[in-house]
Amino acid sequence: MPSAPVARRPMGSPAPPSAANPAPPTTLPPGPSAEASSPRRPTRAALPHVRMAGVAVFSLLGAFLFGLDAGYLNTMVFWKTFKQDVARLADPGAQELSVLVMTELTTAFALGALLAALPCVSGPLIDQRGRRFSIQAGAAFGLVGAIVQATSCGLGQMLAGRFASGAGTGLLSTVLPMYIGEVAPVRARGTYLVMYQLMLTA
By three-state DSSP, how is residue 148 classified? Predict the structure, then answer.
């Protein structure tokens, strides 16, 4: 008895489903749940520049002190109490400070800033002790100078306080641009450095 002809499968067509070759599922796998697709809360790693930006902005106060110390003397030399307690003038209401005294008061601050900003003075301190220690040292010099000036009873003590304040601001003017450029975010680095320049003349 002749056998029935076997139907041949065209080349390239998929094989019919069988026990060894089950049919593929007709339903798609479930998508991500609502919890998985919901945005995550920002973590500490997502906000790495907030703290550095705060440090950079706070460091700008050192530049503000430079302009402040250089500017408040312009009005203080005309105070009657200053001419009486510090300059020791016989008639503070009628007499004015001499050009020599005003030059000494201005030069003492500038000389302290110049000496502290020299590379041979500030460079080893910044490299060996670090940026933060140098900033703390400059702030300490400025604080000591402010106290000496506030409690001065003569021209010599006032000049010493001016020199100490100048040394502190000179050291800060050397280390602060370097420190701000290192800790500020890359995208805002130029902004903070420009703000440093503006704080000098504020």
Answer: helix
For residues 125, 114, 65, 108, the Cα torsion angle rounded to the nearest 10 degrees is: 130
Residue 137: CB atoms within 10 A of its CB come to 20
Q: What is the pTM of this model?
A: 0.69
**122 CB-near residues (< 8 Å, 6+ apart):** 116, 134, 170, 171, 174, 175
CA distances from 197 to 109, 180, 193 (A): 19, 12, 7
Query: 169, 147, 143: which is closest to 158 by C-alpha?
Result: 147
- Work out the number of other CB atoms within 10 angstroms of the CB of residue 63: 23
Burial class (CB in 10 A: 0-12, 13-18, 19+), 53: middle
- Distance between CA 1 and CA 150 in Å, rounded? 127
User: Residue 39: how many CA atoms within 13 Å on its side-chain side?
Assistant: 4
The two structure tokens encoding residue 52: 């550095």
pLDDT tens for the chain, residues 1 to 202: 555 555 555 555 555 555 555 555 555 555 555 444 445 554 554 455 677 767 777 777 777 877 787 678 888 888 888 888 888 888 877 788 888 888 899 899 999 999 999 999 999 999 999 988 998 999 899 999 999 998 988 899 999 999 999 999 899 888 988 888 887 777 877 887 888 778 777 6
Distance CA 202, CA 200 (A): 6
